[in-house]
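Entry:
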Amino acid sequence: MALLTTGGQLIKDLETHGAIAAYVPLEGGFEGRYRRRIRSAGYKSLSITARGLGDVAAYLTGVHGVRPPHLGKKSTGSGAAVGYTYFVPPIVTSQIAHLPPKSKGLLLWIIEGHILSNQELEYLANLPKIEPRVKVVIEVGGERYFRWSPLTQVIAA
């Protein structure tokens, strides 16, 4: 990789394919440069981790219930003593609703993507087709240099 990278090819591939699987060096640093280049190209960036996502479709595009750990506290009433359920708005849909008018879209950068199942990866590969303003980059593994490929090719392999 060059000392200074423009990120032009990554941005072209991201706009062409919609979802990219990235292999990043384990010591980090390179993904920040690419995220900065993508932000300067007109995208708003959102970074999340794949750990604890649960149902990916519900978490990203639907209102979903979460139940924090009850820590021994019981809910009032005659229901189960597992605590209250709080409903959280969808992350991607709410971020898209608040995009600036001149923004190209939302970049969803997911770290630790190697723990996702093939079904979850397929949903994330199809998410830019469902919502065209969303672009997805998933870190699926480590490498000695920063490289990427379309997410559909990684799923097929």
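The first strand starts at residue 19 and ends at 24.
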